[in-house]
Amino acid sequence: MSLLTVFLLLQGLLVVPVTSISEAVGYVGEDITLPFGANASLSLSVIEWSILSNNTLIATYRNGAIKLDRFHLYKGRLTLNAQTGDLTILNLSQKDAMEYTVRAEHASTEIQKKIRLAVKQRLQAPTIRVNYTTATETGCFLLLTCSSPDDGVGFFWKVQPHCWHSWNNTEGDPSQLVAYCNTQESVEFTCTSKRQKETMEAISTEFKIKCDGCRTEASTA
Fold first, then answer.
1. pTM value?
2. pLDDT digits (tens, 9 = 90+) for 71-84
3. In this structure, are 114 and 133 located in the same domain?
4. Which of 15, 98, 143, 205 is 20 to 30 Å apart from 110, CA to CA?
């Protein structure tokens, strides 16, 4: 039992210990809310959010007053909900990735929670380039490449409408697609980059070419 716990017990507070560390993921430049998740009817009397092993305070609620500018790295980037105890960090940076501790008091009970925040960079749109193209009597033959400024991504191609023949590699960067399209109409190529270790995050770029003379029509991210 820690000295702090003994002290709080002597003060008549029932301490609810931290049983686990929850995980949260945010993205550079975006905002994130770290939840304490108290019921608004509890009327919290004290809220303290801290970081580092020495429990450096970054946001507090005491005696009805919220104080947010306690630590220079978070100046102007925090909001604290005095009803729920939730802390919002604005404009995330990689430096915000760490473990956060929240301590709150309600009546004669003290509750503590820990949240480990990971900060990631969102995927950037891939770039499609035309490396080679030549018109045929019935359509066009072309070689496209797709590249990404991000590391550790795989590539996926989609051709609409479907060409007679197409081949692509998905592992290299840049990824290549070779296609022979037997049409005089527009063909749309979509390249999607996706993090190989994540299942949800992906971003696509579309490129349209008119096979009547292999003229580029548009390229949109």
1. 0.70
2. 999 999 999 999 99
3. no
4. 98
